[in-house]
Amino acid sequence: MDISAFKMAKRRQTAGVLLLCSLCCSTLAVILRTTSKSVWATEFEPIELTCLIESISTNNPRIEWKKIKNGVPSYVYFQNKISGDLEHRATLREPANLLILNTTRSDSAQYRCEVAAIDDQKPFDEIVISLSVRVKPVTPRCTVPESVTVGSTTELRCVENEGYPPSQYQWFRNNEELPDDPKTSTRFINSSYVMNTDTGSLKFRTVKKEDAGDYHCQARNEAGYSKCEAQLMEVYDQDIMGISLKVLGGVTALILVTVGLCHIQKHSYCSCKDHRENNYKVPQHNSTMDYVSTDEGHFRHKSSFVI
């Protein structure tokens, strides 16, 4: 036999064996696949987790779905019925897909599809699907100062904690979107703000008159967006005259208080002095002895003299 013909026959034989093995394996083994092992869903909308049976020979395989959250598994589909927190919100679709009709944020977890076929040589297979539920942001809490002075530093804040994935923030002035970097826009090139789209902070390093206006913030993620009500920020020039009057008023008040205290202290001292002078009297002698002047050279006793 020609060597080339022999090699050709050998290849055909090998290919036939491989094909036979493939057919045997496909009919004697449970094999699962899915269209995606990482699935995103939007809250309150339906989502289907696919568990496709590529090969199986058992007529009535046992199909189960488990939800794994924080490492703890719980049944979702068991003994031909939906259970757990998906009992009234999910259904099983042929061949083994899990359809969640109304997803919530609590549905974010790993889901494991398990198929057991006792008549197959490889009687069991499983596939794990990760589900993440997007949650629309709620109305953000916005903090805008009512008034600031030219040249000062101020910060506007915007935050919300419900959205998933975490929200990105954008600020607007008079309904016009502020660019992330003011230097990229001729309209805002004179502004000195720094915007952090991750934290919602809008910080002005040096406030200018043109920074005045109505400000509102928008929180956005893949599920949608929400915004707060616009708030007015007024910008004033530094009031030198007003500051001077305030300082003068403070000095005047201090002087008046000092004079008043001195006046009170002085009158209190005088009152005490008069009181002491009025209370001082020459002691009165209660003795019945009557003294006469020394010019008389003697003294005389009154009848009331007591020995």
From TrEMBL:
Q: How does it sit in the membrane?
A: Single-pass type I membrane protein
The scientific name of the source species is Astyanax mexicanus (Blind cave fish)
Q: Which UniProt keywords apply?
A: Cell junction, Cell membrane, Disulfide bond, Immunoglobulin domain, Membrane, Signal, Tight junction, Transmembrane, Transmembrane helix
**Residue span, Ig-like domain:** 26-130, 140-233
Its primary localisation, in coarse terms, equals other
Q: Which family does it belong to?
A: Belongs to the immunoglobulin superfamily.
Would the keyword Transmembrane turn up in this protein's UniProt record?
A: yes
Tell where it localizes: Cell junction, Tight junction; Cell membrane
Source organism's superkingdom?
Eukaryota
Annotated signal sequence range: none
Give any GO molecular function from the UniProt entry. Answer: cell-cell adhesion mediator activity
Q: What is this protein called?
A: Junctional adhesion molecule C
What GO cellular component entries does it have?
Answer: bicellular tight junction; cell-cell contact zone; plasma membrane; protein complex involved in cell adhesion
